[in-house]
Design a protein that fits this description.
single chain; 325 residues; alpha/beta; seven-stranded parallel sheet; 13 strands; 44% helix; globular; binds uridine-5'-diphosphate
């Protein structure tokens, strides 16, 4: 099989490419390196089954050439990271909506299968204990940039489902919850790489708000298992599935855990959201996936515990820092 991975030089994309190659597939990547980087795929470039194209998915001609050649498209390209969304709202909205439009339009022309990655952000401010795919999206005011990301990804979902309904195009949607692992950068706001790097450098760990907000962090390789299982099940198409983990942790406890596991004497500092993001900011108090749907469909369950995941990330950053010295 030959696959196109949009955003393949990103954190999750690079893990997906690695796995597809390992499973014996041919992999083409298109990435404009806006948030991804060549370093993520450096080890793959010597593989004869791997091709990298440095271009935007908004380049329709390029997308025609690429999509014509493959059997399956994994659409991961998009603007991600809370910090980036707050700093560059126009780019976020445009890349997410136009990019998905191009992918679906060209996929339809050649009748290719598409998996679109979406995000748990689409659940918005719901205060449910865990989030189920068919529940309402509770988005905040348009004056908060954060919700433009949620809204743009919700449009991507609407589009994907519409192409399936109206044209019978095989499209499946994966709503990813907090995903972490090697190669994720803290540059766009993600909490675990930020806390791990700060701990290893002896710098303060900054907890936003009161630190009581909780998240469930899934290890990227478990998430890839879920993505592949969905892509390989024809009966999953035309539907939306949560992928993530269900081990919940409060951000202040996460900071304490990382500090302890790294043996760091960094301070844990609390700062208000306004100070962290430079603007008023709406955060979610908790965010846990309900995994019944994907588990029933393809037998997905996350395998790696939070502690194991943190250890992998700590080891990764330790090694990276040693190499950079
Ligand atoms: N956060 C934090 N300190 C940081 C970065 C993030 O306290 O340096 C908090 C953030 O406000 C959120 C949680 O950690 O409540 C997870 O943030 P992340 O950006 O990783 O993912 P989100 O769930 O917000 O998409």
């Amino acid at each position: 099989m030959r696959a196109l991975v949009t955003g393949g030089a990103g954190f999750i994309g690079s893990h997906l490419c690695e796995r597809l190659l390992k499973d014996g597939h041919r992999v083409d990547v298109i990435d404009d390196l806006s948030t991804g980087c060549l370093e993520n795929i450096y080890s793959l470039t010597s593989n004869k089954n791997f091709t990298f194209v440095n271009d935007t998915i908004l380049n329709r001609m390029m997308m025609y050439t690429l999509i014509d050649k493959v059997d399956m498209i994994y659409h991961l390209a998009g603007a991600v990271g809370v910090q980036l969304i707050v700093d560059e709202p126009v780019r976020t909205i445009e890349t997410n909506i136009r990019g998905t439009e191009v992918v679906l339009e060209v996929a339809l022309k050649f009748r290719k299968k598409v998996l679109i990655t979406s995000t748990s952000e689409v659940y918005g401010k719901s205060e449910n204990e865990s989030f189920k795919e068919d529940q309402d999206c509770v988005l905040g005011a348009t004056t908060y940039s954060r919700w433009s990301y949620a809204c743009s990804k919700a449009i991507d979902e609407f589009l994907g489902l519409a192409y399936h309904r109206q044209y019978n195009l095989p499209v499946v949607l994966a709503r990813l919850f907090n995903t972490v692992g090697e190669r994720q950068t803290g540059q766009y706001g993600m909490v675990i790489p930020r806390f791990v790097q700060a701990s290893l450098l002896g710098e303060p760990l900054t907890v936003y708000g009161d630190g009581k907000q909780t998240r469930c962090f899934a290890y990227v390789r478990d998430v890839i298992d879920g993505l592949l299982a969905l892509a390989n099940d024809p009966t999953a198409y035309g539907n939306v599935y949560n992928i993530g983990a269900t081990e919940e942790v409060a951000i202040e406890n996460l900071a304490a855990m990382i500090k302890e596991m790294t043996g760091s004497n960094s301070q844990i500092q609390y700062i208000p959201y306004e100070q962290a993001y430079g603007k008023p900011f709406d955060d979610m108090v908790r965010r846990m996936p309900n995994l019944e749907k994907i588990s029933k469909k393809v037998g997905y369950t996350p395998k790696t515990s939070l502690k194991e995941t943190l250890q992998i990330i700590i080891d990764y950053f330790r090694k990276k820092m040693e190499n950079e010295l």
